[in-house]
Each structure stands twice: as structure tokens, then as C-alpha cells.
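Below sits the subject:
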Amino acid sequence: MPQAKTLTPGHVVVYPNREKASSKTMKGIVVLILLASAALMLFVTVGAWSKLAGLKPVNIIWILAYVILAFYVARWRRGLLPIAAALGVLLLMTAIIAGTGVSGTSWFDRNHTGFAHAQTLFGGTGLPNDLTGLITILIAPVQILLIVFAMLAFAQGWHVEMEVPEEEAKRRGYTPIHGPPASPATA
């Protein structure tokens, strides 16, 4: 059974590393990169729906995962940063393979005779193959940025706690939350 936190009376827990401008900036950058990645994947998924073969469910799950990660990182959940970086590595490899045609035909090769245009999720004419290829290639540097910034943010120590008097916490901009008084443990 985990131990309950015991605070000195009149004190509250603050997170000093979250107050730094560099931490707030890094958090914003990581959230922005996650949302940009999700948007780029959404363009490719919707705009080239008919040509994605077996990656449709994977793309949808990946987009949802990035949006969920962005939500929680915006709420200072530091533990998800390595997960975001790991997903970034996987998507980087996927984007390089899909964009360059390492495994077969790239989006750019689909402009030749014999290839049909992609259809959107909604049945209309999809994105031009060159644009789909460009967006796919753009995903790669965005993932490199995600990996770098997620790891830099992880190193900032957003989880570090410090116990300070309530007056000090109020001065720092925290709203002290008073829970029920700690009761002594019984055997």
C-alpha cells in the first residue's frame, strides 16, 4: 500500500521547474509539434484514403495518440514525453520509407501512367500524389523535432516537488488546495 504524503502544516507542494520560462516554452513547443504531426497525418489519411492499404487504422490510432499525448503534455505529464519520442522514431521511419519509396512505390511515382488518383475518405478526388508525397516527406523532419524537443523537455525535471509555506506558494501563483487532514495510520 503506498504511503500517503505528509505535509508540514501550513505548507503546500509546488513544482519549481514548471515555473521556469524555458519549461513553459518547451512544453508549448512539444504540444505544438505533436498537434502538427497529427495534422500532417490527418491530411495524408483523409486525402489519400483509397491508397493507404492496411495503414488506415494505424494512422487513425496514431493521430488519436498524438492528440491525447498533446493534451496530457499540456497538463505537465512528463512521463509521456519518452512515449512521444518513441512514437516519433517509429513515424520517422515510416515516413522515410513511404516518402522515398524504399519499400516499393513512393507517392511521387504514382504520377506515372497506370496509377489511379487517390480518393478521399469522403469519396471525392484526393490530394495530388506529389502533394501527398511532400506531406509524407515533411512528416520526417517534424518527427526529428519531436524526438529532440521531447527529450529536452524530459530532462527539465517537471516532476520535481518542493514543500513551501502557503504564503510563498500564493506569491508564486499557486492556489493552495486543502485536502482532508492526514490521519495517523492504524495497525
Q: What stands out?
A: The chain has five helices and two strands. Residues 11-171 form one domain. The helical segments are 21-47, 56-74, 81-100, 129-154, 166-171. The chain has a mean pLDDT of 79.
